[in-house]
Design brief:
Elements lengths: L1 H4 L1 H7 L1 H5 L1 H13 L6 E4 L6 E5 L14 H11 L11 H14 L9 H13 L3 H8 L3 H17 L2 H11 L9 H9 L8 H10 L14 H16 L5 H8 L24 H13 L8 H10 L3 E4 L3 H10 L11 E7 L6 E6 L2 E2 L24 E2 L12 E2 L6 H9 L8 E3 L22 E3 L1 H7 L2 H11 L1 H10 L7 H7 L16 E2 L1 H12 L3 E3 L4 E5 L7 E3 L5 E3 L5 E3 L3 H11 L21 H5 L4 E6 L6 E6 L4 E7 L14 H14 L13 H4 L1
Parallel strand pairs: 1-3, 6-7
Antiparallel strand pairs: 1-2, 3-13, 4-5, 4-19, 8-11, 9-10, 12-16, 14-15, 17-18, 18-19
Helix pairs in contact: 2-9, 4-9, 5-12, 5-13, 7-8, 7-9, 7-10, 12-13, 13-14, 17-26, 18-20, 18-21, 18-24
Pfam families: Transgly (PF00912), Transpeptidase (PF00905)
InterPro entries: Beta-lactam/transpept-like (IPR012338), Glyco_trans_51 (IPR001264), Glycosyltr_51/Transpeptidase (IPR050396), Lysozyme-like_dom_sf (IPR023346), PBP_transglycosylase (IPR036950), PCN-bd_Tpept (IPR001460)
GO molecular function: penicillin binding; peptidoglycan glycosyltransferase activity; serine-type D-Ala-D-Ala carboxypeptidase activity
Amino acid sequence: MVAAAAYPLAAATGLGAKATAHAVEAKTKLLSTALPAETSYLYAPDGTTLLTMFYEEYRQYTKLSDMSPNIQQAIVAAEDSRFYTHHGVDPKGVARAFVANANSSGVSQGASTLTMQYVRMALRDSATTPKEVQEATQQTSIRKIKEMRMAVDLEKELSKPEIMERYLNSAYFGHRAYGIYAASEIFFSKTPKDLSPVEAATLAGLVKSPSEYDPASSDQQEATGRRNYVLDRMAQLGYLSPDAAAQAKTEPIRLKLTDPPNDCASIPEKYNSWGFACDYFKNWWSAQPAFGDNRLERMDKLRRGGYRIVLSLDPKIQAAAEKNVGAKDRTGSPFANGIVVAEPGTGRVKAMAVNRTYSLDLADNPPSGNPEASPKVKANYPNTVAPLLGGGDLPGYQAGSTFKMFPMLAALNAGMPLSTTFNAPHRYRSEVYDGWAPSNASGAMTGTQTMWSGFGKSVNTYFVWLEEQVGADKAVHLAEQLGLRWRTDVDRKHASPENAAKWGAFTLGVSDATPLEMANAYAAIAADGRYCEAMPVTTINNRDGTPTMYRTASGIGSEVAKPRCRQVVNADAARAATDAARCPTGDTPAKGSCGGWSTADSVRGTVGRPVAGKTGTTDSTRSAWFVAYTPELAAASFISDPDNPFNAVGDGQSQIPIEAVARTLRDGLKGQPTRQFTPPSDRIVG
């Protein structure tokens, strides 16, 4: 019997190991450097206020020096009393288990040391395929022998304290708590450093069977019995005095449970509106090649990579945006009023707000207003997590005359001056666009116009003519360079290389766009033509505190959170566009005349500093927009029914986006010094 009992141990170093020696050695090397999956944290801009976390396994890696000796002693007492004397495999334990299992004709005892258990956990956690997971956990003698061999080899690579640290960071304690940091927080709302002997014994007792010994269940009898067993073992090993152990066994298990947040829906109520920015961050992350080859890999990195991420929202500007959207009715209207604020020169998103509550609970939402939707489909208000502001897969909303910026900017970039003049009729028949004949919103717009007056009054016929001069395809291409994407089949067809030159209606904003896109496109003009990709973060750090890097197309290493900017139009053209864009807001351009009136002439007085922008409405005012910027900030606001675009908001509500943007810029910039726009050169003025 003794010789038979010795067989499994011999196999670990003999015949069984010989067949797989090279594979085992390679795996052992990998496990000596591999770290377990770790939770990623999303912080407010102060870098300390936690907004939410992302995880599949809630875990925060903790150094052994930051753990109480009580938990180290308790886990040895519970799982492997000879941990500090064996070399990865415990011969006495193997023999005892072999005899017990042989006598019971089954598996009644295990012989896994802490090192062997860590090997199993590490193999499972590092598995990349279902087959590897199965091989790491299947109950076979071959798996056990490999595990023994790897445990012996691992103890040659790592010290006992290093193995203990990794074990306590890998073990599962139940209630989604992976590792001792999560277990301490979830069960006792404290750090591992502060665990008492009673608490440590309770947690150590869970590892054997987290569900059976769960102290958070209605009946703590099993958990108490297991805890008391661990306390007795701690006394037997000299970690506790007999009296201390006896006293500890009389204490009830006192839990202070914590439910750690996970994902955007768990953002605290105080920061509810930040959920839309959080959701945009996730969509942005899933599109970054730095985190994997596809969306699945990238989201897996977010939930397992242990990143520390700081959101780019500015609390002051976000508060201003929240206050100024949907002023009359924040959440009870089918019409969504939203705003996005971006920072020129960086692309960082400073505010995202909409008159909706960020929530997955749609129970109290009315039926959708879309006549083609099923009666069971819920409306998008008052609760939603739909990306109404952009950054997701929704197409957006027709942006109307805010698109006039693109042909004007293309014309200026091509060398046409601001003074380019056209006697704009009330209706203009275009031969370039196959006889299409758009008209102006008012007869008062008829007459000689320049870029200043044409933009300030939003003269359709002037801009259709201007688009003809520069080429609609040039305007479409410029919009693409400024970040616009075509998300509907109709838009993609018109924007295609073979059709773009004939897309005359492009200048009137018949394409869908999102406020995120429009704010960022106009921010590029504020930044003298330098476009920066929209960026929802200020920093992303790896678990070791170093900035997360990626390789650019030219092979240069760069921080993922660093602004990604490029010059799209020349600076003088951008400054000229800004000069014309001061006309709609009631501001005074540096070089020309606005023609006596404008579409949003109250904005300059509200903002109280130089401001440029453009209004936009669609047919029958189904949606209304306003996009504006100062040298410091760019903001885009819309009002529309996301469920039913044919539900017109009406002229009476077209002022809402104008007020939302003007007041947000005013409040967000309060207390900051006033900056002036740089005027264009005389050459481009003409």
